[in-house]
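Sequence in, structure out. Go.
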Amino acid sequence: MEDNFTRNIDGGLGAADIGGDWVVTYRDAELDVEDGAMTAEFSRAGVSSAAYLIPSTTSTDLRSSVALDKLPNGGGTFISMQGRRVGNSDYRLTARVLSNGNAVVSLIRANGSQTTTLATQQINDLRLAANERLAMRLVVDGTSPTTLKAKVWKYGQTEPTDWMLNAEDTHDALQATGSVGYMVYMSGSVTNLPLTFLMDSFVANSYVDETNAEQMRENSMPEPEDAGTEADTDAQPVNEGAEADQQPVDGAAAADEGAAP
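Output:
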């Protein structure tokens, strides 16, 4: 699934580049798509904007690029990427952007209005500015347990090698295929409105663990063949026209099919 928002739509989101129509679940902000980005303009506090794409999976590597046109005061703005959405439950990565440009990032399990924080970290050196994009990456992979990993960084900088947040979860309602989406909540104490959320990239693929994939590639490499011994100079000559016996050489080992697509 992928959307780079290269279309013009007033009052909605339309269809993603790959993944079908966006299904809008919270309409408390004015939605538009133009100039390679979707925007949600909030004119009041304490409300949400959210939408999802219908195709579902149990393995998601979700990447997005987001921004705010101004830094929120009060309790901040909660920007969430949903890596698995099943009914009214979901796994999400939430970046709570604060007035000083820093953020609190969390892996969250949501079940209706109930939320459980699985891992969290405050980033005190992020220092986002108005209209400066934040890169968000969330992995939600497998079932029973589900593995969750996440990281955020300033767009344009090198992606951190290490995952910022890690968790595992076995909540029954979410051990199934699910869809992907976004959710933005404007804290009820924000007063510097209107405030606009922007997203210019949303890409969800199946997750490939590069560490394990590299190990699998190494294990699948064929052993070098022996050069063999040179013919003994005292050996009996081969009868003219007779072909020498030759052992067939096994082909290279196939790549491990256990690697994730």
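Check: Confidence is low (pLDDT under 50) at residues 227-261. The first helix runs from residue 210 to 220.
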